[in-house]
Amino acid sequence: MSILQNKTICFLGAGSMAEAMISGLVDKNLIPSEQICAINRGNKARIQELVSRYGIATPEKEEAIAGADIIVLSVKPKDIATAIANIRALTTPEQLFISVLAGTSTDYISSLLGHSAAVIRTMPNTSAAIGLSATALAPGKYATDADMDLAIQIFQAVGIVEIVQEDKLHAVTGLSGSGPAYVYYLVEAMEQAGQEIGLERETARRLILQTIIGAAHMLRDQGEEPATLRKQVTSPGGTTAAGIAVLEKHGFQEAMLACIKQAVARSEEMGKQSVPTS
Ligand SMILES: NC(=O)C1=CN([C@@H]2O[C@H](COP(=O)(O)OP(=O)(O)OC[C@H]3O[C@@H](n4cnc5c(N)ncnc54)[C@H](O)[C@@H]3O)[C@@H](O)[C@H]2O)C=CC1
Ligand SMILES: O=C(O)[C@@H]1CCC=N1
Hints:
The chain folds into two domains: 3-167, 3-Layer(aba) Sandwich (Rossmann fold); 179-267, ProC C-terminal domain-like (ProC C-terminal domain-like fold), CATH 1.10.3730. It is built from twelve helices and seven strands. It has helices spanning 16-28, 44-54, 61-66, 80-87, 106-113, 145-156, 169-177, 179-196, 201-222, 226-233, 239-249, 252-273, and strands spanning 9-12, 36-39, 70-73, 96-99, 118-123, 133-139, 159-163. The longest helix is centred in the last third of the chain and has 22 residues, at 201-222. 1,4-dihydronicotinamide adenine dinucleotide binds next to helix 1 and helix 4. Catalyzes the reduction of 1-pyrroline-5-carboxylate (PCA) to L-proline.
């Protein structure tokens, strides 16, 4: 039995990322749903939504925070100072804080808490909801190996885990934290193209979806380089070569590189906006 079965976990911020994690944790039964709760900024309807979907508990804020073994910080980076100020008096150095905030350093979070609780910075993605997140974790200065083990167990329940140095988390954010959105954007573009070339939207969607699932499984299961798999599709003088030549002409690779670099730069910028106070 996982040690997490005896832990209580509170999400501070009940938005998309918190829901993706709650959904994954409840689905895997890693922590009983009555030992999970979430706190929002006054939006009771949202909490009720999570309660009805996942059967999580609804303790009062004091009990939710003071009674939690693990607090997952899941507000937007701009809201973290206020969110922690509202709960700080209820927290203790024995609790484990797991942050999913883009750009925000563990030192800054420790400075907001004002004590030496363990803080672990992570970057999951919303595919946690179906157990397929790609999550990177980095320990803050007060986190022990035992704290890391707990965090690893939580994120392994909702996908794969990589341990990185904290300064690499900006790169992870631009690559795999934001990554699902790049894929959805590609699907949007393919769907639009599908309609413009005369296919019904629903037909196009089914074909695109299966194409993406198939390609993802090929990448995962066949152990081949993406370039090798691409070449297998690309008959000389054929349709794929004709299409990819246009992608090259429009600077597809440069666009992807610039996109990811810009996302990384934004994560770094968000980090600089949160300057440690001690
Ligand atoms: N959405 C995504 O794909 C990913 C998001 N993240 C990170 O997760 C965090 C949350 O992002 P989302 O869930 O997308 O945002 P969201 O906007 O969906 O959720 C944020 C939640 O925090 C609540 N909140 C705001 N101020 C609060 C306060 N003072 N006290 C308590 N709750 C408060 C809001 O009411 C809202 O429900 C961000 O820091 C983001 O960088 C990380 C990985 C992926
Ligand atoms: O867009 C954002 O800032 C968050 C972080 C990674 C994915 N979504």
